[in-house]
Amino acid sequence: MIYRVSGKDRRTSEPREVYLDAPSAVEAEDTAYRRGIAAPKVDPVRLEDVPPGVPVIRRDRGPTPVPPEHSDLMTRPVWTIAKGVAMGLLLFLALIVVLQFVLMVLGMTLVGLFS
Known about the structure:
This protein has two domains: 2-58; 73-114, no CATH class. The chain has four helices and four strands. It has helices at residues 25-34, 72-75, 77-106, 110-114, and strands spanning 2-9, 15-21, 37-45, 56-58. It has a four-stranded mixed beta sheet, covered by helices on one side. The radius of gyration is 33 Å and the shape is rod-shaped.
């Protein structure tokens, strides 16, 4: 559908009017704002009502972008943090077991090492 969007230029404050081909009035207003028109007023018009010689701005949509996949930290933060804490505890316990074994081989105990 064709929309006539009128408003003021954001830099110069001069009145501006453009014709946009957009799927909805909201998209036409958004496009006009991105093109530098402040406080746009959007009116639907027929193609025949567009003055001769005035271009109709068509926005090429292109393919719809695929949203990026989120990591588990973004989608399930509590579960991910809990898994990290559990992994850290297991590694810490494994370190204690290895240290106890090394000290046992050397003939010391972990308790005797700190006393």
